[in-house]
Design brief:
It is built from 32 helices and 21 strands. Strand 17 and strand 18 form a beta hairpin. With 848 residues, it is α+β, with helices and mostly antiparallel strands. It starts with a helix and ends with a helix. Strands 17-18-16-19-15-14-20-13-21 form a nine-stranded mixed β-sheet, sandwiched between helices. The chain has a six-stranded mixed beta barrel with strand order 3-4-9-6-8-7, surrounded by four helices. Strands 2-10 form a two-stranded antiparallel sheet.
């Protein structure tokens, strides 16, 4: 049996290398995108965990204000708590490096004495030993960098490093190189260490801390110690394990990663279709061989095993090729994913891909499972061929005409399931049910293909001979053409639906920006543009803005993350009176100007749609928000449309924010100019005025929108890759389909050639059939894609993100896609048609 398999498989690959290459490429592309996304997801989480371990070290618990500075007095309270063996303070800040455009430092101010039992790093200074830390005491401006970053910046021990903080430029001297070990290996290369006193002075945070790391006494219960800490500290303080901090970020990234994974699975689905068509082509080519083997005594299971084995061999080569391609893809997208995660969720720098044997096994197993599943159906069909049937090519065409109206019943059944799953996803959850809604919606369209093809074949009538022959061939080959159209429909539906969804989302965001982001100019720290919200604006910047006669009013904006009902949400402070007069905030119910004016200075908040959906609140509901002054009751004054975050945001007036958070600094200023003022002239004047104060950027409204859409387009990079793969699949699918049909029709084409039809006539007939196939596929793909885009927009999007996106059709797609698909079909079918037309008549007519 093994010898038979080897001869069977080897002969097929050697005789038809082009078809085998197409199959290998299809599997490789599917596996590459699948493992590429898996590796990117794993690398993002691994990078964040390593950075958490690097800063937390061996800590068992952490106390933080989650972005809000905490008072040093809290350190004493923590150290006095039963079960705490040691506690060390940290001060954190992210700053841009002068003279090195684009580089930043994630600075960690540590207490060199109390930090010793926590360390997950070693310090090296040339030939000095790790314990020689005298330079940190001799020189308050000493700093330690990772060797990787020092090499990238071209600095050595003793060189000066200047970075820009909220209070201005700070000059430090590189005294040590830091090397992380244990779980901290792979941490962000931008982590830098300095003495905590120097950090507090440089950052303008004397008497303030960012975080406190704790070690527990031997035998202490972490849960009891954490509960004891929470009872002694203000409610706004977060007490958690370092792993808990990682899990919070992982939870935030969950929807982002799940959607990437779902898109990568689509590529495997597409590869399955290619495998199906390739094995089907092999079965058709060798029906005579199957009949001969069956007549010589080979059992049906043996025939099925031969074709399954052949598919797994070819698919295995595709998997082996796809694995390294996927790793290259992941490596090339590290920067894109890092920037997307930083812009939307949290500061993250992925320096290297994270892979494991388990991850490789999952990807390889998924690829081989997809191959085996797709090949099973044609292999089983081959095993059912009787020896007499095998020598009659007309049998398949006869069987293809037996489909009845139950296809329509099945299609409507699938749409019913799609509606039910979509309703459950929106009403009760979980959100993953929305993927099932999309799957059954698409399946419903594919089940209608046989009926649609039969109606077209019976309706279209031509007077010319060749078009009539092409239509007759199309009708007699529905067993292959129907499957090809259904698969192309699925691929094109994915392409169209994603295109429409992105277009709708982009148009919605563009309209929202024009209504909501109405300030003429914006002032923010430069580091916030590079690494997310990291620094505050000093009072001098606000004073400079307030003194400008060209400014009619300005908005103060501050954003921070807090823990609400155990989940991370964003709290944003605005001056409600200014927002009521100038902002175009859109509420789900009520007039925004009235609600903002009524809520000024009061304990009323305005929440975004994601917050309302996530915590099941609506206008008028009371909620309790943890603040540094304890849990405080607030009222939901309104729900507004927002597309900046999917894990919840509420707006609070500065009067209430000062009252409960005791914070005055803002992070962004929005300037509203007087009528007739030139924004560009004011921008240049203000930029020159504040340049001596520090590194601050003045943006125009147009530049803000441009940056928003840069991040938007970057977020959908992987989606664009999927769309490209879809077009490749369309071409290769049509190619394989006509390879199959050219074998089935050898005798028929021989008859046509013998009665006088020219080679060009045969080519025109087959290419015309391909054009018809492309036209049907593109039109059905547009229809199915439009339906699927409604599921993406109104089911999947609100289920995962809670956003209201207005559906919009890029009408240009309607007249661009069909010609492209038809041309692709013609070009893909030309080589099989040309080859078929040149088969000698005697060879084509030869009987087994």
């Amino acid at each position: 049996m093994l010898a038979l398999f080897l001869r069977h498989c080897g002969r097929q690959i050697a005789r038809h290398p082009a078809m085998s290459a197409v199959t290998v490429l299809s599997v490789a592309l599917g596996v590459a995108l699948f493992i590429g996304v898996l590796v990117l997801n794993r690398s993002a989480l691994a990078a964040f965990r390593a950075s958490v371990d690097a800063t937390a070290g061996k800590a068992n618990l952490e106390v933080s204000g989650d972005g809000v500075p905490i008072d040093e007095e809290i350190l004493r309270t923590v150290r006095r708590t039963p079960g705490i063996a040691a506690a060390t303070p940290l001060v954190e800040q992210v700053c841009l490096v002068s003279d090195h455009p684009g580089e930043y430092l994630q600075l960690e101010g540590i207490d060199l004495f109390s930090n010793v039992p926590f360390r997950a790093f070693t310090l090296e200074a040339g030939g000095s030993s790790e314990s020689d830390l005298l330079e940190f005491f001799r020189d308050p401006r000493a700093i330690a960098l990772t060797a990787t970053l020092a090499h990238k910046m071209g600095v050595r021990i003793g060189d000066r490093i200047t970075f820009r903080t909220e209070t201005g430029q700070a000059d430090f001297v590189l005294r040590y190189l830091v090397e992380f070990h244990g779980k901290a290996v792979g941490a962000d290369e931008h982590l830098a260490l300095l003495d905590i006193a120097s950090a507090q002075e440089s950052f303008g945070r004397v008497g303030k801390l960012s975080r406190i790391s704790c070690l527990l006494r031997k035998g202490a219960d972490p849960g009891q110690v954490a509960a004891s800490l929470r009872s002694r500290l203000p409610p706004s303080m977060i007490v958690q394990t370092p792993e808990g901090r990682s899990r919070r970020v992982e939870k935030m990234l969950g929807a982002f990663e799940l959607n990437l994974t779902a898109l990568s699975l689509v590529s495997l689905f597409v590869a399955m279709y290619m495998i199906y068509n390739a094995v089907e082509a092999s079965v058709v080519r060798r029906r005579g061989e199957i009949g001969l083997l069956r007549s010589l005594g080979l059992q049906r299971s043996g025939v099925q095993a031969l074709f399954l084995g052949e598919a797994l061999v070819v698919g295995g080569v595709g998997v082996l090729l796809g694995l390294p391609l996927g790793l290259l893809l992941a490596r090339s997208l590290l920067g894109v994913i890092s920037e997307s995660v930083t812009a939307i969720y949290a500061l993250l720098r992925i320096e290297r891909i994270s892979i494991s044997a388990g991850l490789i096994a999952i990807a390889a197993g998924a690829g081989l499972a997809a191959v085996a599943t797709a090949a099973w159906f044609p292999a089983r069909e081959a095993s059912g061929v009787e020896p007499v049937e095998a020598f009659s090519p007309g049998t398949l065409a006869e069987k293809s005409r037996r489909a009845g109206p139950w296809w329509a019943v099945a299609a409507f059944g699938c749409w019913g399931l799609a509606f039910g799953l979509g309703w459950l996803a929106l009403r009760t959850g979980p959100p993953t049910l929305s993927f099932g809604s999309a799957l059954f919606a698409l399946l419903g369209f594919t089940l209608l293909v046989p009926l649609v093809c039969r109606e077209i074949a019976s309706t279209l009538r031509f007077r010319s001979v060749l078009p009539r022959l092409a239509m007759a061939h199309f009708a007699h080959s529905l067993h292959h053409n129907g499957i090809t159209i259904a698969a192309l429909l699925a691929a094109l539906a994915m392409y169209v639906s994603v295109t429409v969804m992105i277009f709708s989302f982009r148009k919605t965001v563009d309209d929202w920006l024009h209504r909501t982001v109405t300030a003429d100019l914006f002032v923010a720290p430069a580091i916030n543009v590079r690494a997310g919200t990291q620094q505050d604006l000093p009072p001098a910047i606000e004073e400079a803005v307030a003194s400008l006669p060209s400014v009619a009013a300005y908005e103060r904006y501050r954003e921070q993350r807090i823990l609400f009902r155990g989940e991370t949400v964003k709290c944003a402070a605005l001056r409600f009176p200014v927002a009521a007069r100038y902002s175009g905030l859109s509420l789900r119910q009520g007039d925004a100007r009235h609600v903002l004016s009524e809520s000024a200075g009061s304990d009323r908040v305005i929440v975004n749609e994601s917050f309302a959906k996530r915590f099941h609140v609506r206008e008028g509901d009371p909620i309790e928000i943890p603040t540094p002054r304890g849990n405080r009751p607030f009222t939901v004054a309104g729900v507004f449309y927002d597309y900046t975050t999917e894990f919840g945001l509420f707006l609070i007036d500065w009067g209430a924010y000062r009252r409960y958070w005791d914070e005055e600094r803002c992070q962004t200023l929005g300037l509203y100019l007087r009528p007739g003022e030139d924004p560009e002239r004011v921008r240049q004047s203000l930029q020159r005025q504040i340049a001596p104060v520090g590194d601050w950027i003045v943006y125009s409204n147009r530049e803000v929108r441009k940056e928003v859409f840069r991040v938007f387009d970057q977020t959908f990079t992987v989606t664009e890759l999927l769309k490209g793969i879809t077009l490749i699949v369309c071409a290769s699918g049509i190619f394989l389909n006509f390879v199959i049909l050219s074998v089935e029709r050898r005798r028929e084409i021989g008859v046509l050639r013998s009665i006088g039809v020219s080679r060009s006539g045969v080519e025109a007939m087959l290419v015309g059939e391909a054009a018809l196939l492309g036209a049907i596929s593109s039109l059905l793909g547009l229809l199915a894609g439009t339906g699927l885009s409604l599921v993406l927009t109104y089911v999947i999007n609100p289920s995962f993100f809670g956003w209201t996106v207005r559906w919009a059709m890029p009408w240009k797609l309607l007249w661009e896609l069909p010609p492209v698909v038809i041309l692709t079909a013609i070009l893909s079918a030309y080589w099989p048609a040309r080859r078929c037309a040149r088969i000698p008549v005697a060879e084509a007519m030869r009987m087994e």
